[in-house]
Every structure is written in C-alpha cells, then in structure tokens.
Amino acid sequence: MLTRLTIKQYALIEELTIEFESGLNIITGETGAGKSIIIDALGLILGERADSDAVRKGAEKAVVEGMFTVAGNKRLQSLLAAHEFDFGDELILRRELTVKGASRAFINDTPATLAVLKEVGDMMVDLHGQHEHQSLLRPETHVDMVDDFGSLAGLVKEFDSSFHAARSLLRELRELRAREEQLQEKRSLYEFQAREIDAVQPKAGEEDALESELTILENAERLHAATERLYQMLYEGENAVHDQLVIARNELENLAAIDKSFEEYRAEASSAAAIVDELAKFVQHYNSRIEFQPGRLDEIRDRLGHLAMLKKKYGGSLDAVLSHRDAVGRELDLAENFAEATAALQRSIDGIRERSSEIAVRLSEKRNEVARKINVAVVKSLSELGIAHGQFETRLSYRKAEDASDAVVRVGKEWREASPKGMDLLEFHLSTNVGEDPKPLVKVASGGEISRVMLALKMILAKSDRLPLLIFDEIDVGVSGRIAQAVGRSMKKLSQFHQVIAITHLPQIAGLADCHVVVEKVEEKKRSFTRVRKLSLDERVAEVAKLLSGEEVTGNALKSARELMGLRG
User: Fold this and answer.
1) Which of 358, 454, 463, 468 sees the fewest Cβ atoms within 10 Å?
2) Rounded to an integer, what distance in angstroms lies between the CA atom of residue 312 and that of residue 301?
3) Domain residue ranges of the chain, discontinuous segments joined by +
4) What is the full DSSP assignment across 422-457?
C-alpha cells in the first residue's frame, strides 16, 4: 500500500506530500490543475522513462519519493533479496531527475538500476491510463492472471519442476554425446597413456621409500666404516666407553658403602652402562647387515628414472600420475559403455517428457475452462461499465518445436515449445465495436477502455490478484449517469481487496471515496503552483456537490451530494 507520496520541483509542483489511505482514494480537481502530473510523477518511481523537461524551471533537480507498507509480501521480499536489498515493513522508492537529464533511482536509500526499480514497481502497482505501467498491455502477464483466477499455481509449479528436470536431463544427454565424440577422438591417446603408466605400475608412496633406500646404498661404505669405528669406541676398543662406565659404577658402589649419598649416582652409572650396551648392540647389528649391492643401486636408479618420466608427463608428482591414470580409466570405461549410458539417460528423459506432457495438457485444459469463465464474466462486466457491445476472448495457442530433440512437451505426435509456465501462449483479445472481430488488447483499446477492461478483470480476479495497489487515470472518459454509478460501485468493491487510487471528474465515483484529495493550481509571484488538500467530510460533500452542479454549489447540490455519498441528514 502507498502511504505517502512526496514530489519536489516537478513540472508545476514545487513541493507537495499526499498521505494516502487503504481503500478507495479519489483525486479530483480542475482540468490543468496537475492531477495527471501527480500520476506521471508516481510513474517515475515505478520505473517509467524520465524527461528532463519535467524539472521545474529554476530548479536543479526533481525528486519523487513514495513510501509503501509491504509487510508480508513474500514475492517482493524474494525479489529484493535476489538483488541484495534490505526488506522490512516499509519500502521507500525514490527517483531523482536533474535538469541535465541525469536520472538516479534508490530503493530504501540504496542506489538501484532502473530495471530493478521497474521490477519492484511491476510487483506492487498497476497504473492504468496513458502509461506503460499497465499489466494488461504486457501479454506475458495474461497467463498469470488466468492462473491466479483458476487457482492453478500448484499445477504450474508441478509443471515447472518437471520442465526443469527434463531440460537438465536433455542438457546432460547433449553433453554426454559431445563427450562421446571427444572421447572417440582421444581414445587412442588415452589407451597409449594407460599402457605407458601400467607398464611402470607406479604405487602410492614408493618414491619416498626408493629415495631412502638409494641414499643408504650409495653410502654403504661410509656407513660400514662409521659403524665399525663406533662399535670399537663403545664396546671393543681399548678404553671403550662401556668398560670405563663399568669401572666408574664399581667405584661408586664402593663409595656408596661408605656414604649413602653416592647410591643415587651409582644407579645412574649402571643405567648409562646399560644404554651404551644397547647402543653398541644396535651398531654391531646394523654393521652386520650392510650389503654392497651395485645391481640393486642400478635397479633403483632405473625405477626412479621411469617414475620421473611419468611425473614429467602427467602432472609433476606421483599422486598426479595415479590420479591421471584413474581419470583415463574412467574415460575409457565410459567409451566402452557409451551405448548403455546413453540408453539409460534416454529412458529417464522419455519418462520425464511423458510426465511433463501430461501435466502440460492438463494445465492447458484447465486454462481453457478458466478462460471461458473469464470471457463470459468480463463481457457482462464490460456491459455494466458502458461497453455495451464488447467482445472479450482469452485465446490460447502454441508453437511447434523447431527442434524435437530439445523439446519437452509432446501432444500426440507433435512436439511443442514450452516454458516453465507450460506450452500455452495466452493473450487477451477485445472488440468494443459492433461488427469488429476481437484483436489483441494492446492494439485496440483506448486509455479509457483499457482502464474499464482492467476494472472488469480486476473485479473478477480481485481475491487472487497479487498487485496490492491499482491506480486508475481516465477511467471515466465517455462515462456518465448509470454507467458512472456502475464504475464507482465496481471500484468501491475492488477497494475491499486492493488499495485503489483514481483520478475522476465524476461525482458518482468521487462520492464513494474513503480518502478524497483535491488538486488545485494557484498563482503566486507570477508563477503557477500545484497544491493538494486532503478533504474533511464536509469538504468532501462540498467537492462532490461542485462536481454535480459546477462552481456554484447550491443547497440542492449539497443535498444530492450527501445522498450520493450515503450520508443521512
């Protein structure tokens, strides 16, 4: 719901703020006072094109800002989240237009592109009059209106899910077939690589073990001589460490017999002798196992050379070589079993296509049923709104798929194009003149007619329609008397489900307002200004009376106005 609209330095408007309410909001005023300027300004924050000539003379820029209450609007919340805008109970849209032609848009004080601003506007407002912001003039929205009216959202969602699953499988099949061609081209290379790696039979971790063994074998003589010297030093040589420790231990035992304070150190000497004994045994055993194997040295060097060659060709490490071999193996297995893999995928595609086609046909049948009901109801409503000979048709059609291999929906033997919303192309057609065949709505309806067609549709779709704010400009063109009353009653009823803002010259419509704003043009210091006033109840009566009788408001006009407004006394 639009709660406040602020306009600064735009056309005749220097600065004004309008506070709107829920229900039916009526704007009246003399011709040329600036009513349509307000609607034009509102269109700016809904993403319509801007004209720098609209900046008020003498000003640097024009600013239009609208505050909306949007609590609970999940669709809008998702849209804003997708574009990384904050969402709260209130939403502020602002547009700035400079005299040099620059235009900036903001959502909750955060810069936004005009495209995003328009997306947000399309989701919240339907603006009817001489504007682009009319959902009826965008055929792509017609199917949504029909689906809303018929409560078909569940079926549409079911098709959407099946459709995307089918598209995913078809893409997978295309990729698989492309891989098959690539694999056939590379099969010989993969087979050669597999044979080359298998001939060496590399094993995980073996390189480190071979490098360690190579180091030992290359230093066998040094190891043998060093361990021989070490053993002599520790155990067998003259003044060996082990013997000296034994002598020291014995001396400490003698001293401990005299002074107990040596007991602890005697034990330490015994431990040291035992450690040296173990070390000497290890060195002797190691020395005895040393072998001089020139043949094994050559074998290791040769093996490491083969591994180095594989590493250089297949990734720089042994792990990379083994990983490449696994990948090549999988590709070769796939090449061997392409027919089976393709057949299995094709079976899945056939199943999901059959399901998608069944849902699409069911959805189309439901839409046809709903369309017939809408057609009858709209024609009846149009008659009540002054379009006596109106013909309204909701036409469903389809296109044949140019490429059956990529299609999802088949009816009989014919493949058809489809979107996530189904296979139907749906568009409203209208004729308002006797003898004329219905044509696409966008081509035949005038401003006043399009507003009444929308009013008729909105009356039918009121409870299901997802746009919270409807704005009508020129809806009373060519309307008077009984038809005006019908238009007013329809708008009043519609305002039970939506916030409605309407510009009107008709007392029959103005008298039903929940909130009434009058637009006035005044002159001060040789300049024209547009101002607005929100009317009290007595002022509303006077304004409706003025619409009934002209500038001179009579007692009878006031009485008639009160009767028209349903006021007693």
Assistant:
1) 463
2) 16
3) 1-131+473-535, 201-336
4) BS-EEEEEEE-STTPPPEEHHHH--HHHHHHHHHHH
State residue 81's pLDDT score: 92
Are 234 and 278 in contact, with CB atoms under 8 Å apart?
no
The per-residue DSSP string of 545-560 comes to: HHHHH-SS--HHHHHH
- Tokens matching residue 289: 């196992």
| Among 181, 183, 195, residue whose Cα is nearest residue 325 | 195
pLDDT along the chain (569 residues), means of 10: 93 91 92 85 88 87 94 88 91 93 91 92 76 68 88 94 96 84 76 87 85 76 81 83 86 87 87 89 83 77 87 88 88 77 91 96 96 91 83 93 93 95 94 86 70 77 71 73 83 89 90 93 84 92 89 85 83
CB-based contact 456:375 (threshold 8 Å): no
Give CA–CA dist 382/457, Å, rounded. Answer: 9
Helices (H) then strands (E): counts for the chain = 18, 17
Other CB atoms within 10 Å distance of the CB of residue 54: 18
How many angstroms separate the Cα of 52 from the Cα of each of 99, 107, 130? 5, 21, 19
Q: What per-residue confidence (pLDDT) applies to 432? A: 82
Tokens at 409, concatenated: 């929906």
CA–CA gap between residue 381 and residue 489 (Å, rounded)? 12
Q: Cα-flanking dihedrals φ and ψ of residue 94, to 5°? A: -135, 145
Instruction: Provide the token pair at 276.
Output: 């040296």
- Location of structure tokens 């002209």: 550
d(CA 115, CA 109): 16
pLDDT for res 448: 62
pLDDT at 447: 60
CATH topology of domain 1-131+473-535: Rossmann fold (3.40.50)
The pLDDT value recorded for residue 347 is: 94
**Which pLDDT score is estimated for 63?**
95
513/491 Cα distance (integer angstroms) = 10
Which three-class secondary structure string do you get for 181-217? HHHHHHHHHHHHHHHHHHHHCCCCCHHHHHHHHHHHH
